[in-house]
Design goal:
The protein has 457 residues and is α+β, with helices and mostly antiparallel strands. It folds into two domains: 175 residues, 2-Layer Sandwich (Alpha-Beta Plaits); 223 residues, Alpha-lytic protease prodomain-like (Up-down Bundle), CATH 1.20.1510. It has twelve helices and five strands. Strands 1-2-3-4-5 form a five-stranded mixed sheet. A hairpin with a 4-residue loop joins strand 3 and strand 4. It holds the Pfam family ZT_dimer. Belongs to the cation diffusion facilitator (CDF) transporter (TC 2.A.4) family. SLC30A subfamily.
Length: 457
């Protein structure tokens, strides 16, 4: 727990406290905190030494219990603004640095250190507000879901209209780049339909057949879309290569050959349709990227891919059309199928990244260390009767996290009191928008290893 401010930053730009000037160490140093870490092992990205368990165990020599005359009152409101203990929010707020005039003379790493520290304090302040009954985070989460639903419908309607426009453009122009863009739009339309279907099924799930909901339909849908996108792009690349070979044979055969070039005619309508598509998709991308959900991230990636593909299709199609009409060197006609291949490769790379991210979520990838520290801080402040925090674990369970917390309570505590403490902590953790389900395990000792309580898989 004493590592939450710095040690959770696992990247090359992380900075140790010793690197800061002595007059600028406005840090959350654990020097006076009466907490002993029993086990600490967090999943670290590849390339760094790490342990396979993301387990955080803390023993608390609880001074809060001595500072409060009435334990019952402190338990009801553990987030006390007047608390002067080291891990109190009051102490955290005092250490917020903010922007200062002298920051311009600091190195990039030190600036990033202070920025990360202030962001961490902001996160703990949000946890504090939830602990005091502030429901603004849940309201914002509900609003986000409504916005996602609206944008999904708007994207579906826009994809239908733009798809029809681009089909007409492809028929008129016969440009491979435009045809490649049409396939991209066709898969966009399919993606909107699949994501809309997924949202519909999630909202209307059978609580007996799916007692924990069907939120994992979102990442499953995105993976299906990624496969479809990649397959369609491979077909476009294959046809483009065949066209390049045919055009090369035409130029090799000479002027008396019966072979012909691939006809390309970029008239006003195809150009206007592609420009309208690019502008519309840019607007949709800006709207979707502002909403932080897996569905909106997938749609935003879809829209920006379409913008890129349409720009390339427009440029390559116009160059190919001019070359076909002999207004420029005819060999420039190769630009059109090459543009189609570029679009296909770009789409494949983008969607493979999306598929990789969603596969991690479905396979139980560990939570970010900063989120683990947030859970630990929330648990630490939940009740003065908690003697030790034995385990804090969180991992993806579809789009959100599944959280496991193991706390140690007095051995002679009444079952009713222990249950109320555990249930209260569970509800508090599940109030976090990122959490789908939380499990709180109550124990009376901490000498065992956390893995001893569960089957090792």
């Amino acid at each position: 727990m004493s590592q939450t401010n710095v040690a959770y930053k696992f990247d090359s730009d992380a900075i140790s406290l010793g690197e800061l000037p002595s007059d600028k160490q406005h840090t959350l140093s654990p020097g006076t905190l009466p907490v002993r870490i029993r086990r600490l092992s967090i999943h670290i990205p590849h390339g760094l030494h790490h342990n396979s368990h993301n387990v955080l165990s803390v023993e608390i020599d609880n001074p809060l219990e001595q500072q409060v005359s009435n334990k019952e009152e402190k338990q009801e409101n553990p987030f006390n603004d007047d608390d002067d203990s080291y891990y109190s929010l009051k102490n955290f707020r005092e250490r917020r640095r903010g922007k200062r005039d002298e920051d311009s003379g600091l190195s990039r790493r030190i600036k990033r250190f202070y920025k990360d520290q202030d962001e961490l304090i902001d996160v703990y302040e949000q946890v504090h507000n939830r602990g005091n009954g502030d429901d603004s985070a849940n309201i914002a989460h509900t609003r986000t879901q409504k916005i996602s639903n609206i944008l999904t419908k708007v994207s579906l309607a826009a994809n239908i209209i733009l798809f029809v426009l681009k089909i007409i453009s492809a028929v008129i122009s016969q440009s491979l780049s435009v045809i490649s863009s049409v396939i991209d739009s066709g898969v966009d339309l399919a993606s909107s339909i699949i994501l809309f279907w997924a949202w519909y099924k999630i909202k209307r799930r059978n609580k007996y057949r799916y007692p924990q909901g069907r939120t994992r339909l979102e990442p499953i849908s995105i993976i299906i879309l990624a496969v479809i996108m990649c397959a369609a792009s491979v077909l476009v690349a294959y046809e483009s290569i065949n066209t390049i070979v045919d055009d090369a044979n035409f130029f090799k055969a000479g002027p008396n050959t019966t072979k012909t070039l691939q006809a390309i005619d970029m008239s006003a309508f195809p150009i206007a349709a592609i420009v309208i598509t690019a502008v519309g998709k840019t607007i949709l991308y800006i709207l979707c990227i502002r909403v932080n959900t897996p569905t909106m991230s997938a749609l935003a990636a879809d829209h920006i891919n379409d913008v890129a593909s349409n720009v390339v299709a427009l440029v390559c199609g116009i160059v190919g059309s001019y070359a076909y009409k002999n207004k420029i060197n005819q060999k420039a006609i190769f630009i059109d199928p090459i543009g189609a291949i570029v679009i296909a490769i770009y789409i494949i790379i983008t969607w493979i990244k999306q598929m990789n991210d969603q596969t991690k979520r479905l396979s139980g990838y560990t939570a970010d260390p900063k989120f683990l520290s947030q859970l630990t801080w929330l648990t630490y402040h939940h009740s003065p009767l908690i003697e030790k925090i034995d385990t804090v674990r969180a991992f993806y369970f579809g789009t959100s996290y599944l959280v496991e917390v193991d706390i140690v309570l007095p051995e002679d505590m009444l079952l009713k009191q222990a249950h109320d403490i555990g249930e209260g902590l569970q509800k508090k953790i599940e109030d976090l928008p990122e959490v789908e389900r939380a499990f709180v395990h109550l124990d009376y000792e901490h000498s065992h290893h956390p893995s001893d309580e569960h089957k090792v898989v």
